[in-house]
Write a structure and sequence with these properties.
The structure is a homodimer. Chain A is of the alpha/beta class. Helix content of chain A is 32%, strand content 27%. Chain A has a five-stranded mixed beta barrel. Chain A has a four-stranded mixed beta sheet with strand order 10-11-12-13. In chain A, β12 and β13 form a beta hairpin. The first copy, chain A, is globular, with a radius of gyration of 20 Å. The model of chain A has no long low-confidence stretch (mean pLDDT 95). At the A-B interface, β11, β12, β13 and α11 of A face β11, β12, β13 and α11 of B. β13 of chain A pairs parallel with β11 of chain B, so a sheet runs across the interface.
Chain lengths: 349, 349
């Protein structure tokens, strides 16, 4: 059996955690894990449970984040992409250059939170076994805790084994009514964005879904080491279509399976999602770092490098970080990107 | 007629403007005036309208604030008190040391906002004339714009002239029901905390109200200049009773008059009071400094030395200043002191 690999996708900028997240220190590098480590560090820890050695972990990130990423992932092979092109080109480039054709690899986003490391490792090993045995694309489906509209959904089809199904249909983030229908049907799971497949099977599916993309990257090799690879990517990447692996591969492929996860999972897509996993005081407040909370209920107050003080608030977020301040209702924390865009636009004036 | 003097009281720390106000830069030094100057600078400008030269303006402040205060008041005589003892000792000490017995002087708090400089100067000159003619204590009463509970009130007695009355009774900050009764009666004015009187008349009233205080300070002289005066105050002040001039003098004296002001006035006692005088956008928001306001109504967003961003809020304050953040409802801005105290307590831990 050829070696297994893990590809960690660490190229995101995580603007929804503004002002804590910054271009030079995006979400996956912030100490957002329950134990105060970065999400990337905990993802690397999970990856190490699946491979024989750290150099079987590839981390794809932006060129300017490589040093910070390497510090969180000692021994991993950190690859820099010259421009962001979403997940399909990142996966295809890393796999083409660095993973043997017959090897299976797991794709793990760097910014997810999972507490039950043992359950994750068990499920992932099972996914590897399936992917090594069958020419299939294995995804992890999360039993939905509720009709969340911030996740994609996958409908399960025929049952193939314990917690293992054919994937019948992928749906991007639905509206609230549709999400409710999905959850009530009992047939849908959250699409975790974590996958296991053989390189050859992945490229077969990419060839069918996006032949130009597959053709542009398939021939890449790791000759010339990391810097040679990155030099080639500087030539190739800018012209590539920016497209997610869900759209380029999973939504069209006939051979997608979904393994229902037995582990907890969250993509921590917002301040609100992060806060749900933090300890709270008697009045339901999350006070993180240098936070002063006076007469508040169910608030999230974060002070990094300065005091954040909240008084008389309910269901609000107050963040002081990187010399800036954000305040908004928790219910709107999914929209913080609007604020960071407004701040950027202002800066550009 | 002996020269007139003005005594500016600039010793406050203005904690209700935390985090913008800091011990080293309290409220009166912040650019809170409508034109972006400090309240102290505008107070000094008003004072200059009443006296023949800048050296007839005395400014009493804390020793550590003297340099900053002097910059705002070029040519004024700036006096440092070694410890804060409220308004009665500050007025008595400055008057005893620096004002001739027969001279009248106005007392102006350094942190009030008045836009109509001409009307102020007219009213103040009239108050001087009254105080120079009669052995009375002249206070300025402000026609109440509403039942505000953040001000003291003065009930007017017999009418002595146009807008000039005997003061019948002083009341400290009332509760809301009482404030409504006051305003509905038509007999009450806000107590502005600005006064005009002769030094001899003031000391007569202080002698009656607080003989120990009067005795401790009456003998002070300006021999030895400012530093000699301050050396004596270092010995005298710590033992003095901390007491307001309202309580030590005005509430008991029989010879208090109240001149109904023809000028606008606010003591800018809170973020909310300050915001009422600032320009607003179409949705009622005050955006000051480096402020980003997304989908908010009737909010106050202040960014000093960093971005303050608010999204989806109503009737809220969001302040980023001096490396700290405050968020609270505008309606609670009177209570910001609670936050600054909590922050201090935290720092002391």
């Amino acid at each position: 059996m050829p070696d297994r690999y893990v590809l960690v996708l660490a190229g995101g900028r995580g603007e929804r955690f503004w002002p804590w997240s910054q271009p030079a220190r995006p979400k996956q590098l912030l100490p957002l894990a329950r134990d105060g480590r970065s999400l990337l560090a905990t993802t690397f820890e999970r990856a190490l449970r699946l491979v024989p050695s750290a150099d079987r972990v590839l981390v794809m990130t932006a060129l300017d984040l490589k040093d910070a990423v390497q510090r969180e992932c000692p021994g991993a092979r950190v690859l820099g992409e010259p421009v962001p092109r979403n997940t399909a080109p990142a996966i295809a480039a890393a796999a083409a250059g660095w993973i043997p054709d017959a090897s299976a690899f797991a794709v793990l986003p760097a910014d997810h939170a999972i507490d039950d490391l043992d359950a994750f490792a068990r499920d992932a090993r099972r996914a590897f076994e399936v992917a090594e045995r069958e020419p299939v694309l294995v995804t992890f489906g999360i039993p939905p805790a509720g009709p969340d509209t911030s996740f994609g959904y996958v409908r399960r089809g025929a049952k193939l084994g314990e917690r293992l199904f054919r994937a019948a249909q992928f749906t991007e983030k639905p509206d609230a009514a549709r999400a409710r229908t999905f959850v009530e049907s009992g047939e849908y799971m959250w699409n975790s964005g974590m996958f296991v497949w053989r390189k050859s099977v992945f490229f077969g599916a990419l060839e069918a879904g996006r032949p130009a993309l597959a053709g542009a990257l398939r021939g890449s090799s790791s000759g010339g080491g990391v810097s040679g690879f990155e030099d080639r990517m500087r030539e190739v990447f800018p012209a590539l279509e920016s497209i997610s692996v869900d759209y380029a591969v999973l939504e069209k492929a006939p051979n997608v399976l979904v393994l229902e996860a037995s582990f907890d999972w969250d993509d921590l897509g917002s301040w609100g999602a992060w806060a749900r996993r933090q300890p709270r005081d008697a009045r339901g407040n999350v006070a993180f770092g240098d936070a002063v909370v006076v007469d508040c209920d169910d608030c999230v107050v974060v002070g990094e490098g300065g005091t954040a003080a909240a008084m008389g608030l309910r269901d609000m977020i107050v963040v002081h970080a990187n010399g800036a301040t954000l305040s908004c209702p928790i219910a709107q924390s999914e929209g913080v990107r609007r604020v960071s865009e407004a701040v950027r636009a202002r800066g550009a004036e």
